[in-house]
Structure formats: structure tokens, C-alpha cells
Amino acid sequence: MEQYTSQASPELTNPDPTPKKTRRTSFWIDTLETIVMALVLFLAINAVSSRVRVENISMKPTLQPGYLLVVNKLAYKLGEPKHGDIVVFDFKGAGEEDYIKRIIGLPGDQVVVENGVVSVNGHPLTEPYIAELPRYSGSWSVPPDSYFVLGDNRNNSSDSHQWGYVSKNDIVGKAVFVYFPFDSIRSLVIPDLVQAAN
């Protein structure tokens, strides 16, 4: 004899109380919220940082052409540039292209290049990061709110030794991180030998 149960099937006793139309609306609301959150996050990240591609050889060997960098745009709104910082700046008269160089002289500094040695306020810098010793010479007194910048590839760089100083207002931010190529990922820290000049 077959046995039957008088209980209703679970599908009938617990029907989904949410109509299909409400579920569809909920899906679109969730999707829209996700898109809005992603957009807000994207805008927030772009407000405090930017991404820059190195286009030339002026910062070799530290930065090679094709490197992609993260630039902190708040660094100098919250603090002051230091000797050795690698900065991205909008050089007036350079067209659309931003420049990337290393800060050598701060406002009030006396920078001297002589016999292949760069000195700041009478103190020679030991610079393990440069491609070769500079083959030029000169002396510069850095004015207020300005910076003396040089490329690490000293003899193949258009920089302050040719066209003068960079205004603080023209600095976009501080280069802080190489994120491409993957085998070169690293933080861009100030060398100890340059920190001693601060």
C-alpha cells in the first residue's frame, strides 16, 4: 500500500514574497549604486593623485622611458618640497607636456656645479643615482617660492641649469611610486645622501 502525506510541498508553503518586477528594480538600483560608488572613488583618487608616464631619458637611470608613476598631488599642499624629491611640474612654455625632475635647490639655497660636482650651500652632494657627472658648470641663487631642479641624466636633461627655476605654483605633485613595468615596481624614496642636505 502506498503512503501519502498530507503536508503541502515546501514550494507552496514558502512562496517567494518578492514579485519579479520588484527583484528587477532592486537589481538596477544595486547596479546604479555600484556605478556611483565606483565613480566617486575614481574622482576621489584623481583628486589626490595622478598617473604619469615617463616619456624621455632625462631621469635615467632612476626612471626609464615608459615607466608609469603615481604622483601625490597633495604632498605640497600639506607639506614642503625637500632636497631630492622627484617632482612633476608644468613648465611654462613647454606646451602640453609636464616635466619630471629631482629637486636640488630649495628657496634661498646657493647651488654650484663645478668640476662635475653639485654643491648646495657649500656642501657637495654625493649622488649615486645620476647617470654621469655633469659636464657643465654654473652658480645659481634660488629665489623665494622657487626650486632648482635637475634630471638624473645630467648631460641629457633640459632643466634648471638651462632655463632657470620652477615656481612652487607650477608643481603638480611628488612622484612616489613606480607601478609599471611590474619588474620595476618600487617606492621613490629620497636617497640618504640627499636627505642630509635637508
How does this model look, in words?
By secondary structure, the protein is α+β, with helices and mostly antiparallel strands. It folds into 2 domains: 17-47; 50-195, Ribbon (Umud Fragment, subunit A). Helix content is 23%, strand content 28%. It has 5 helices and 12 strands. Strands 1, 2, 3, 4, 9, 10, 11 and 12 form an 8-stranded antiparallel β-sheet that branches. A 4-stranded antiparallel β-sheet has the order 7-6-5-8, with no helix packed on it. Strand 6 and strand 7 (123-124) form a beta hairpin. The longest helix is centred in the first third of the chain and has 29 residues, at 20-48. The model has no long low-confidence stretch (mean pLDDT 85).
| Rg value | 28 Å
Which homologous superfamily in CATH is the superfamily of the largest domain? Umud Fragment, subunit A
CATH architecture of the largest domain: Ribbon
What general form does the structure show? elongated
How confident overall, as mean pLDDT?
A: 85
- At the third CATH level, what is the topology name of the largest domain? Umud Fragment, subunit A
Counting helices, strands and paired strands, the structural category is alpha+beta
**The number of domains:** 2
Along the chain, the helix and strand elements come as HHEEHEEEEEEEHEEEH
